[in-house]
Amino acid sequence: MKADKPPESSSKNTITQAARDLFDFAVDRSDVKTLMESLHAAADVSRNAVEYELPLLKIITVGWSLSYFIPHGPYKTQVSEIYWNAVRDFSRTLTETLELASGKKVDYFEEVKKRLNQYVNAMNENPDAREPAVVIGPEFAGACGNRDDVFTVMTGARMFISAAAGVKKYLEEVKLR
């Protein structure tokens, strides 16, 4: 057996690792904690709602960013499939845990899909927006219960911008962009 891997094997490892790294980034809660700490006290919204919606937005933003930042081709499809399958597996585990803890049936992956559709529809309804965060911020605030709360709008926009920037930077580093 040769010590050097063939290029396609190396590419497959890079793709798999990239998808795993991006999934790990998507479910990391350190920025959620930071954003929650910086949410202004005058925010007219349930902090529990914001804390629930931020991780959803981050998962969605990472997935959306894969479609946006990776050029068309096999890498885009492969990374996206691996990423969304990891999200599905994570959601299944989270759903089971939530059921055991609360006794309530909540399908977390359905929540992710519902929010993804909500954000995509909002973007489609605002094709002239100068940047996606202008649409995502108010939509996020609406999902939290008060579309007009500026503090919540800014929190959602900040999550979207930082998560998308993190994906873009990572993809440039691993040369998938």
Order of helices and strands: HHHHHHH
Estimate nothing, just give the exact number of structural domains.
1
Number of helices: 7
Please indicate the percent range of residues in DSSP E strands (runs of 2 or more): under 5%
Main sheet specs: none
Describe the structure.
The protein is mostly helical and 177 residues long. The chain has one domain. 77% of the residues lie in helices and 0% in strands. The protein is built from 7 helices and no strands. The chain has helices at residues 7-27, 30-38, 47-69, 74-102, 108-125, 132-144, 150-173. The longest helix has 29 residues, at 74-102. The radius of gyration is 18 Å and the shape is globular. Residues 1-9 have low confidence and may be disordered.
